[in-house]
Amino acid sequence: MDKDVDWERFSDPTIINPKQMILVCVIIEIILQSFALSIHPTEWWIWQLLGFITATNLGAVILAVMSARSANDIGKAYKSVFTPSFYKTMSLISNFQEYFEAEAEKEGRNLDEEINDIAPKIWSLIRANLDVQETIPSLTPMDKEDDTDLFE
Questions:
Q1: How far is CA 74 from CA 14, 80, 93, in A?
Q2: pLDDT, tens digit, 9 for 90 and up, residues 9-41
Q3: Less crowded by CB within 10 Å, the N or C end of the chain?
């Protein structure tokens, strides 16, 4: 289907693991320590470093709490939408998509090109059907009084 999206990567997102987190922290610590060792410590630099450490730690805690709240809200929404029925339906649609791609490939066709060709035709067919249905007068049930007149 759409080659612009890496569906394999999208369907299996990578989440940073503890080893990667530790590596990032160690790299940051090495950079900060090398900076700290390269300058002459003064009271002003010590206060600056203390303020930086306090701000980053406090910011990390606040952002973690906000992220947890957002994650809980997202989790609630996902639970209401992504039910077993949803996943079964998506699996069925995926099976159809795979079958369609295999059949198009057997015929030497590209499914995207076929959809681009067929979609306007399907739209025209549906639109024509709806236009015809609008011109047919709707049938209304006969009144009870009219029913008795027919049988007398």
A1: 18, 10, 25
A2: 766 767 778 888 889 889 988 988 888 788 888
A3: C
- b/e for 109-129, b at 16 or more Cβ within 10 A? eeeeeeeeeeeeeeeeeeeee
For 119, the token pair is: 């979609």
Q: Decide: 1 and 114 in contact? Cβ < 8 Å.
A: no
Matching residue, tokens 């639970």: 79
Between CA 149 and CA 152 the distance in angstroms is 5
- Written as one letter, the residue type at 64 is A
Residues with Cβ within 8 Å of 101's Cβ and at least 6 positions away in sequence, in order, are 1, 111
Query: Cα separation of 21 and 28, whole Å?
Result: 11
pTM: 0.41
86-136: pLDDT as tens digits: 999 999 999 999 998 898 889 898 888 888 888 999 999 999 888 887 776
Q: What would the DSSP string read from start to end of 76-134?
A: HHHHHHS-HHHHHHHHHHHHHHHHHHHHHHHTT--HHHHHHHHHHHHHHHHHHHHHHHH
